[in-house]
Specification:
Blueprint: E1 4-10, H1 12-15, E2 29-33, H2 37-48, E3 56-60, E4 66-70, H3 73-80, H4 84-95, H5 105-125, E5 128-134
Antiparallel strand pairs: 1-2, 1-5, 3-4, 4-5
Helix pairs in contact: 2-4, 3-5, 4-5
């Protein structure tokens, strides 16, 4: 069994559908696997030097097999401030954290670049950023 991880930007109402924005615009979506919100928390700590705020659940299936989390606004703000020149250093530090979802630079880099892209798009479009997990 694999954990699907859809990162997306949407309105709160769309996020409450709890489907990971299935069929949504590719511009507003990034699909990865095995990524939980706890695996993202080290990014925030690396960037800001402070503990990551809690990801709040906004929707959950009755059997808990699908759940949508809202990114903390401060996390989105931290992501949009990142420069290309910082990515390699962040990935290097993130990779050694036991919560990191992958153990190689390429997958972590791809994920971080996608998160930065979505954070910027969410801010520009006045939407929120979400993580949907499904077993």
């Amino acid at each position: 069994m694999s954990l699907a991880s859809h990162f997306f930007i949407a309105t709160g109402e769309d996020a409450e559908r709890n489907d990971g924005l299935e069929g949504g615009s590719a511009e507003h979506l990034a699909v990865f696997y095995r990524v939980m919100h706890t695996g993202l928390a080290p990014i925030f700590q690396i960037i800001t030097g402070t503990e990551c705020p809690q990801f709040e659940s906004v929707a959950m299936s009755e059997d808990y097999s699908q759940i949508t989390f809202a990114f903390p606004p401060s996390f989105v703000s931290a992501l949009i401030e990142l420069e290309e020149s910082q990515i390699a250093s962040i990935v290097e530090k993130w990779r050694i954290d036991e919560e990191a979802p992958y153990n190689n630079d390429k997958d972590l880099r791809d994920l971080l670049v996608a998160l930065i892209r979505l954070a910027r798009s969410a801010t520009e479009s006045n939407r929120n950023m979400y993580l949907w997990n499904s077993l």
